[in-house]
Every structure is written in structure tokens, then in C-alpha cells.
């Protein structure tokens, strides 16, 4: 009899670049982060709203906050009425449309928070996706540094709430007046020169002082051989820019003094220093520590988007990928004052300031550090004897009724593959019931987290079999209490 040929697959299973298939560990981490971050926004008095994924292309605007090319980086389609719609690239542009449409009926200032996916048609990279989750807060209709300082302090609180440890993050703050004053002081009048200088400053953390000096001068050739034309400044002007860029000090007040001495007697620059001094006083009143919120003269952000203070939330710790290579996630959020965005819908001046936290980037960073490995797995009840499968289901049901997530192994493999399955599920514990346990009315519970930690110190198989790390036998009536204590101690 001829063998039946397996039909060839009709399509190649693959996902588009820059898009994610999220397993439960990432989903749970993102949802938990969103809950914690929005709790901070809610606690600070902001109102939650939700806008649609699509906006008319003209309502979204003709630029992204971090790009200078018109109409770049969006996914668009034409509706049956021949109007162009685009997937939102952030949560701020839809807010501007919402505020412009409903301004007459909104409380003023209007303070809102929102979360959801956004889409950008740009080149993906480590921790940078084409579809990702953001969590925003904005104040529309408030002038002055007080609203900006509140946003900056709230970003520090949000990073901490999302799980960033003290010393592993910082919110870096600058203001557009300082950058304008710096450019005026070196007589950089042409728009192309001004953009080149600012882009060079933005690369200080990656290229160092020498690399930035090259970009401020004639230009720079990178490791691949690509050449970037520089701003063409002479040595005296390069030195002034570098003195400003290197003004960062341990405290905000010290940084202000260093920046003020680097560029003095300039109207725009003096205005920027005064603005940051006021923000510094407000940040101190809001409890923002110098370690968590710093003034950084190299923060640039969107050149056509922001009109005043700008800031970025950054993860400082270096992370290793699965091949042991260093990966620096860097910025996971940012914001600033954008007074022109809402005004274009109303024909009147409507100031605004806001912040956005990249939930997907935060989750990606936690994934690289291994912090997501055991966030959400269920307790797995193993099946050693299929004749007693109903007993296993009864045990799982008891755990679920007590509020403990649990499942019964539904495959057909033996003990070792079942343990491997539980490990891959991120199970914090397994419940084992063999003939001995059934006769005694007991269950054996193995704490997989503690067991794995203790097993690292065991030198041979004999010692492992004798000690059975993380394993305990208890009566059935004690099962729920024992597992609950295990889960609490593993947090």
C-alpha cells in the first residue's frame, strides 16, 4: 500500500517584524504594570478616558514627537468615503483631538490618563516594537512650571510603581529654552546647523565626548564605515557646547549652577535656568529625590513637538540578553510641554503638558533580567495514576475555591515530563498524590522556586534524593494553607 504524502504547508508561519506574540508571563506583567501605574495617576487626581485606535490622518498631525520627517512612521488606510485614517502612533494626539472636540464641556484644566496599544511604522530593535503598550497622563489648559513639575514627579512615582528598583532608574529633565539659548550663544542660526548640534548632544551617552565633538565639527565615521556630516563648528564653539553638555552634577541645584556658568548672559538661556529653578523647588516639595529626578542638558526629544520642559524616564542598569551580551534598554518613557498641539483644533491658545510610559519596553527589560519567569504560573496537580484522575481534579478544585490558581496535568506522560511541564508553565509548586499518599490521606507538595534555589547547593544525586529540597508531605486538610504560605514566602 502506498504511503500517503503529507501535504506541504500552504503558508509559511511567521509574524511581521516588530510585532510580538505575548505569552502569559508578559501579558500578566503588562497588565500588572498598567494597574499599578494607573493607580498612581488616579491617586494624583487624573481622570481615565479611552479613545479609538484609528484617527483621521489630518487629526493625528503631520509629525511624530521624535521625528522630523512629515507623515513618517504611521500605518494608514483609506476609508470607503476616501478619507485617510491612521492607527494612533501615541495617546497624546488622540487626546488633543478629544480636547479640541469637547473643550467647551470639559473641566479646565482637563487632567486625564489613558492606556492602550499604539502603532509605529518604523525600524524595530531591542525592546523597540511596531506595536506596543503605553500608559499616559496629561494636563490640558495649565500654564507654568507647576503642571510640568507634577508630571516629572509623577513619572518617577510611576516607574517605582511599575517595579523599577531604587537606583535603577532616573527621570532626566531639560527645557527647550536652555537649548535655544545654547544655540544662540554659539551663533547657530541656520536650522540645519541647529538640528545637527542637538542631535549630536542626544548621542553623548552612546558616543562619548570625543564622538560628539566630531559630530559638532567636521563629522564622524562610525564602525561600519558610514560617515555623518558634522555641524561645522570651530573649536571654541565646540568647547562651549561640550561644557554645557558636561554640566550634570550629583544634585539638581549643582547642575543648574554648572549650566549657568557654561552659558551666561543669554536671554533664552537665563529664562530656561529660571524655569528649572522653579521646577526644582516644586520637585522637592513633591518629594522627588535628586537620585530619582536629575537635570540633564543632553535631553532633546521631539524638535517640532515640545515647547518647554522635556524629560525622559530611563532604566540605568545594564541587562544581559540570552547570549550573555550587554543590552541597555535606556529610555522607557518621556514627556514635556506641547502647547501647540491642542491649539490647532480650536484657534485659541491651549497649553498642555504630559508624560507617557512605555509598558512594553518595561516588560521587555524585566523579561531580559528574568523577573518575569515566575510571575503567574498555576499550581500543577500531577497525575500519577489515571484511574484516580477524578481525585486530581478534586484537589485542583479545592485550590481554586480557595483562590489559588491551579490546573491538572492533562497530558499522558510520566512523572519526569510532568515536572518539566510544570517548570515550563512557571508553576510555583506541584501537588503529587501517589498510592502511598492516597492510603495515608496526604499530599506531597513541592515548592519549585525554593527547591530550585536549594538544589543549586547540592553536589550529587544521592544528597538530592535524601534531602528532597523544597518538598513536604502534609494532610489533605493542610494542603491549601501550606501552598498559600509557600506562595507568600516566594514573593
From TrEMBL:
Which parts of the sequence belong to the Aminoacyl-transfer RNA synthetases class-II family profile domain? 45-378
> Mind telling me which InterPro entries this protein's record contains?
aa-tRNA-synth_II, aa-tRNA-synth_II/BPL/LPL, Anticodon-bd, Anticodon-bd_dom_sf, His-tRNA-ligase, HisRS-like_core, HisRS/HisZ, HisRS_anticodon
Keywords of the record, alphabetical order, are: Aminoacyl-tRNA synthetase, ATP-binding, Cytoplasm, Ligase, Nucleotide-binding, Protein biosynthesis
Q: What is its EC number?
A: 6.1.1.21
- Mind telling me which PROSITE patterns this protein's record contains? AA_TRNA_LIGASE_II
Instruction: Summarize the subunit comment.
Output: Homodimer.
Q: What is this protein called?
A: Histidine--tRNA ligase
User: Which species?
Assistant: Ponticaulis profundi
Amino acid at each position: 500500500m502506498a504511503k500517503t504524502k503529507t501535504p506541504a504547508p500552504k503558508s509559511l508561519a511567521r509574524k511581521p517584524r516588530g510585532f510580538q506574540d505575548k505569552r502569559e508571563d508578559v501579558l500578566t506583567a503588562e497588565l500588572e504594570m498598567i494597574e499599578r501605574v494607573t493607580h498612581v495617576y488616579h491617586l494624583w487626581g487624573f481622570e481615565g478616558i479611552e479613545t479609538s485606535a484609528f484617527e483621521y490622518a489630518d487629526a493625528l498631525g503631520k509629525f511624530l514627537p521624535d521625528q522630523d520627517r512629515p507623515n513618517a512612521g504611521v500605518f494608514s488606510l483609506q476609508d470607503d468615503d476616501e478619507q485617510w485614517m491612521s492607527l494612533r502612533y501615541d495617546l497624546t494626539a488622540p487626546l488633543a483631538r478629544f480636547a479640541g472636540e469637547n473643550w467647551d464641556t470639559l473641566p479646565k484644566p482637563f487632567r486625564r490618563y489613558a492606556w492602550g496599544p499604539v502603532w509605529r511604522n518604523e525600524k524595530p530593535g531591542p525592546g523597540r516594537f511596531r506595536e506596543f503598550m503605553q500608559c499616559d497622563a496629561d494636563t490640558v489648559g495649565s500654564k507654568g512650571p507647576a503642571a510640568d513639575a507634577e508630571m516629572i514627579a509623577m513619572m518617577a512615582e510611576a516607574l517605582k510603581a511599575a517595579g523599577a528598583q531604587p537606583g535603577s532608574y532616573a527621570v532626566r529633565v531639560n527645557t527647550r529654552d536652555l537649548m535655544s539659548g545654547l544655540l544662540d550663544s554659539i551663533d547657530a542660526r541656520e536650522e540645519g546647523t541647529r538640528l545637527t548640534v542637538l542631535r549630536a548632544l542626544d548621542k553623548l551617552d552612546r558616543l562619548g565626548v570625543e564622538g560628539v565633538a566630531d559630530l559638532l565639527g567636521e563629522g564622524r565615521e562610525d564602525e561600519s564605515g558610514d560617515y555623518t556630516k558634522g555641524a561645522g563648528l570651530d573649536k571654541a564653539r565646540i568647547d562651549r557646547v561640550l561644557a554645557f553638555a558636561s554640566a550634570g552634577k550629583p544634585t539638581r541645584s549643582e547642575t543648574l549652577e554648572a549650566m549657568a556658568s557654561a552659558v551666561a548672559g543669554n536671554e533664552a538661556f537665563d529664562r530656561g535656568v529660571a524655569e528649572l529653578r522653579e521646577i526644582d523647588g516644586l520637585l522637592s516639595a513633591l518629594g522627588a529625590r535628586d537620585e530619582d529626578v536629575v537635570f540633564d542638558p543632553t535631553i532633546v526629544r521631539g524638535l517640532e513637538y515640545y515647547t518647554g520642559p522635556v524629560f525622559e524616564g530611563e532604566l540605568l542598569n545594564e541587562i544581559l540578553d540570552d547570549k550573555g551580551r550587554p543590552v541597555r534598554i535606556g529610555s522607557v518613557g518621556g514627556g514635556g510641554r506641547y502647547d501647540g498641539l491642542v491649539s490647532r483644533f480650536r484657534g485659541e491658545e491651549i497649553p498642555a503638558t504630559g508624560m507617557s510610559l512605555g509598558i512594553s519596553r518595561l516588560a521587555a527589560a524585566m523579561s531580559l533580567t528574568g523577573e518575569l519567569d515566575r510571575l503567574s504560573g498555576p499550581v500543577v496537580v500531577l497525575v500519577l495514576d489515571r484511574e484516580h484522575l477524578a481525585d486530581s481534579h478534586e484537589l485542583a478544585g479545592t485550590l481554586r475555591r480557595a483562590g489559588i490558581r491551579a490546573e491538572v496535568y492533562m497530558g499522558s506522560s510520566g512523572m519526569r515530563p510532568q515536572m518539566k511541564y510544570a517548570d515550563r508553565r512557571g508553576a510555583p509548586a506541584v501537588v503529587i498524590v501517589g498510592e502511598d499518599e492516597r492510603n495515608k490521606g496526604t499530599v506531597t507538595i513541592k515548592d519549585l522556586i525554593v527547591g530550585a534555589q536549594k538544589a543549586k547547593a547540592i553536589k550529587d544525586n544521592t544528597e538530592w534524593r535524601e534531602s528532597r529540597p523544597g518538598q513536604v508531605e502534609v494532610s489533605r486538610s493542610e494542603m491549601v494553607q501550606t501552598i498559600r504560605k509557600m506562595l507568600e514566602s516566594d514573593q
